[in-house]
Each structure stands twice: as structure tokens, then as C-alpha cells.
Amino acid sequence: MDQLNLGVGTRLQHRQHGPGVIVGIRYATYLISFIHHGIKEIDKNDSSLEEIIPENVTEEIETNSEVESSLLKILRLWGGFQEIVPLGDRWKNGLMILQPADKTQKGKEVPIDVFFHKIVMLRDRLRVLEQQINAHKTLSDEDKVNLQQYITRIYGSLTTFNVLFRNKEQWFIGEKGATTD
């Protein structure tokens, strides 16, 4: 296979990192987003790379949800892309009222959709941070795991806000809801 002619979007299998998709091309390397290992820079002539052609695609790679998730991660990392996340119907046009215990002080009213948008932006920025940690060239694997665990605990602290989301698949998931490989 002539690996110097592969383009963005080409699906590859790497012996060490598993399945991935080319997300960027440099002179002598590919930037590849691996499903389980984040973005790595790999030499174009690396003998561990093999192009995945349609008849060799496994179900694991082909599932829509995994492909969709991978593409969203790539788009967030490289394009500042934000997905559209719908607010739960019961909260539309709602108002969040923050009332201090001291009644002589004025409370604050915030439209729920404005507050929700800030929560979604926070989540998106955490995801980008997560991807940057995964792709970082000088962090050790142990440092990456430690930082990932910290981010997972942050997600866990934000699960209170899941009530605002219309779709359960867009919820924050902390340590108790995380799956292990």
C-alpha cells in the first residue's frame, strides 16, 4: 500500500493503537485520531499501519454511535465545533432565581436557556481539554490517566445539571457511570 497518498478521513488499523481515522496530514506524518488512544502523530511509512477497506471493517468500527462520537470529538478538537444540545422541554422559557438568605439583598434572575448554554460550553471545553491531554506528546501515560481521572470527577460534580438536558445521551457522567476497558 502506498501510504504517502492517503487522505483525511481514511480509516486505518495500527498494531499498537488500534483503529483510527486520519484527521490531518503533514509532510512525513499523519495525524490520526484513534478510538481508544486519542490523536497521535504517526510516520507515513510506519509498517504498523494498515488501511481499513470496507470489506475488512469490523462491526466494532462500523457502529454509528462510535463513528459519530469519534467525528464529534475530531470536529470539536480541530474546528471549535459545538454540537446543538437541546434544553429539556419543561425548562424552555424558564427562569432561574437565586435568592440570598438575607431578604434585604436583591436576588438574581437568569433565563434557564442562558444558564444551560453556559453549562454546555463548559462541557465542550472539558471535552477539548480531554482531547488535548490525550494528544499531548510529552505527558506520560500515567500523567494522562491521572488528568483523565480528575476530569471524570469534574463531570461527576456536574451531574446535578443533567436534569436540564432533553437527551440522556448528552448527560454528564462521572466515575460511577464510567465504563472500564
| Uncertain runs | 59-63
User: Biggest sheet, open or closed, and with what strands and sense?
Assistant: 5 strands, antiparallel
Helix content class: 25-40%
Major sheet strand order: 4-3-2-1-5
User: What is the overall shape?
Assistant: elongated
- Which whole number gives the mean pLDDT? 78
Evaluate the radius of gyration. 20 Å
CA-CA gap between termini: 32 Å
What does this structure look like?
This protein has 181 residues and is of the alpha+beta class. It contains four helices and seven strands. The chain has helices at residues 59-62, 64-79, 112-135, 141-157; strands spanning 11-14, 18-25, 29-34, 38-43, 49-51, 95-98, 108-111. It has a five-stranded antiparallel β-sheet, with helices on one face. It is elongated and about 70 Å long. Residues 59-63 have low confidence and may be disordered.
